[in-house]
Amino acid sequence: MDDIVVLHANNTHLYPGAQLQADREEPFLAIHTDVVVLFTDHSRAEGAVRRSSDGFVLQVDRYVTDAGSHLAAKTWSLTPHDGIFTISGRLV
C-alpha cells in the first residue's frame, strides 16, 4: 500500500480547474504511479499517474459517486504548482 499515492480532490468529481493534493511531497518520482482519488463526497476512484513532457497525466478508472452517479474512466492532464496538482484539461 505504501507505493499507492492518495490524491484528495477538492470536489465530488474531476474537471478542468479541479485541484488535487497528494498525501506526500514529491509523490510522482516514478514514471508510473498507482493512485487512489478521494472525493469530497467520500467516493473514491483508482487510477494511475504517469509523467509527460509538460507535467503529468492522470488516468482515472470508472467509479460511482456517493449519490450513485456512474462516471466513466477518463484521462486528464495535470499541472503541478506549490504542491497542488490542477487538472488542466481532458485528454482523449
Q: Any idea what the radius of gyration is?
A: 12 Å
Average pLDDT confidence is 93
Largest sheet: 7 strands, mixed, barrel
The portion of residues forming beta strands comes to: over 45%
3D shape:
globular
Count of folded domains: 1
* Structural class designation: mainly beta
**Helicity, as a percent range:** under 10%
| Element pattern in H and E | EEEEEEEEE
Task: Kindly state the number of beta strands.
Answer: 9
Task: Work out the helix count.
Answer: 0
Strand order of the largest sheet: 1-2-9-8-5-4-3
Distance between the first and last residues' Cα: 29 Å
Low-confidence segments, given as residue ranges, are none
Q: Can you summarize this structure?
A:
The termini are far apart. 0% of the residues lie in helices and 55% in strands. The chain has strands at residues 5-9, 19-22, 32-38, 44-52, 55-60, 63-64, 70-71, 74-81, 84-91.
Question: Which key features would you list for this structure?
Answer:
9 strands; 92 residues; two-stranded antiparallel ribbon; seven-stranded mixed β-barrel; 55% strand; single chain; mainly beta; DUF4440 domain-containing protein
Could you characterize what this model shows?
This protein has one domain. Helices cover 0% and strands 55% of the residues. It is built from no helices and 9 strands. The strands form 2 sheets. A 7-stranded mixed β-barrel has the order 1-2-9-8-5-4-3. Strands 6-7 form a two-stranded antiparallel sheet. A hairpin with a 2-residue loop joins strand 4 and strand 5. The chain is globular. 20% of the residues are buried.
